[in-house]
Amino acid sequence: MLVVLLFRSWCLLLFLLTTTTITRQDFGGCCCHAFSTTTTTIIDTTSRISVLPSSSSLLLAKKQRFTSNGSGSLLHALTERQMQFWEDVEEGLDDIESFYRKKKGQDIDRIRQFGKRARGEIPLPLGSSDGHEPSEEHVDGLTAKPFWDTTKEDAELFPWAAKLEEQASVIVEEFEAKLQRDQEKLFSADSVWQNQVMGNGWSAIRLQRLGTWNSETCQEFPRTYQLLKDLNIPLAVRGVCFAKQAPGSGVQPHSDGRNFILTSHLGIQVTKENQEEDGSSPLCWIQVGNERRTWRVGKLLTLDTSFVHSTSNDSTEDRHVLILDFWHPELTEAERAALTFIYDLRNKFESGQVPFRKPKQILEEEQQKQNAGGGFGGFWKTLLGGGGSNDDDDDE
């Protein structure tokens, strides 16, 4: 009997020492605690997650290695916070799809695929041509090309574009007047991240960010704000800003990844050095994929930033443009609503507006373990000699 008790005590000690590890790891700007055993991995997070602008850790599943029955396997594992996020997303998408099916006969199958890819359940998308580098935040089936002709060839897809060019002088004049009054303090870089990606020569004045208008900035540019509102541009979840490129600087080649958002640059101030007849200058350019184009005052350049793109200002003057991010025209109304919901919810999660809640999947798994024998309780009972059966079953 003594030998049996000693053996069981040794087994218990060995179990506690070898199978439980607690680690602290950096995860997108916050700390998480990972509790792992030889049979499973459970990741718990804090209620707030900081997410890099270029790749959302809420949207993208992290690959975690864990062991099962002694053999290693690489799986796409979601943190509990991510699981909570996606459970809320799916519930919201159900409501959106139900509404738009009844109203317009539209489904959101492509957004369901978007979710699967963002969670790591299906492979990453392939680029459509050289220089096209879409990310995991991808909507299938959308036309991809470096530049779009919003006022001529593709004009019917962008009914607001020609009207914007016709009234561009309103924006140019208001901006120039403001620049003369407050040139020193007008521009400031948005963040360290932006400096790293965009270069120290790039800075911006944000009128809108992540779907929310900056009331203070809009008051500084009231005519611009009102014009943009009146044109009913289908602005996406990224933003609207005036952007400055300092002399002798440029944005290094990079892809923004998301293929469902297009970007227009309205020329505000472009150098007159080496100016061509059309008002452009070869000293100020943007390259998207393998195509290079130049800005003109009062004219739009529209591009797909899921292609690798870069800029340069080789003149001695600042270059200013108004940047507008808007939905890809081939998205349906239902798909736009679904994407708006997803990114709005992500922003709420990131800002801590949504408290932590244990995901339904975890609760169901815990319940299944309890029903199957009590998890650690069942193991402990067996280890100490209680057996795995119920004594009441032996009454006969």
Question: What's the quick description here?
Answer:
The protein is α+β, with helices and mostly antiparallel strands and 396 residues long.
Layout of helices and strands:
Blueprint: H1 2-18, E1 21-27, E2 30-36, E3 41-44, E4 62-68, E5 71-77, H2 80-104, H3 109-118, E6 147-148, H4 161-166, H5 168-186, H6 192-198, E7 202-209, E8 212-213, H7 215-220, H8 222-230, E9 235-245, E10 261-269, E11 284-288, E12 291-294, E13 300-303, E14 309-313, E15 319-327, H9 333-350, H10 360-373, H11 376-383
Antiparallel strand pairs: 1-2, 2-3, 4-5, 6-13, 7-8, 7-9, 9-15, 10-13, 10-15, 11-12, 11-14
Organism: Nitzschia inconspicua
Keywords: Oxidoreductase, Signal
Family: Belongs to the aspartyl/asparaginyl beta-hydroxylase family.
Overall mean confidence score, pLDDT = 78
Number of strands: 15
Q: Compute the separation of the termini in Å.
A: 28 Å
Q: Figure out the total of helices.
A: 11
CATH topology of the domain at 147-330: Jelly Rolls
User: Which architecture of the domain at 147-330 does the CATH hierarchy give at level 2?
Assistant: Sandwich
- Identify low-pLDDT runs: 11-55, 62-76, 387-396
Measured by DSSP, the beta-strand proportion falls in 15-25%
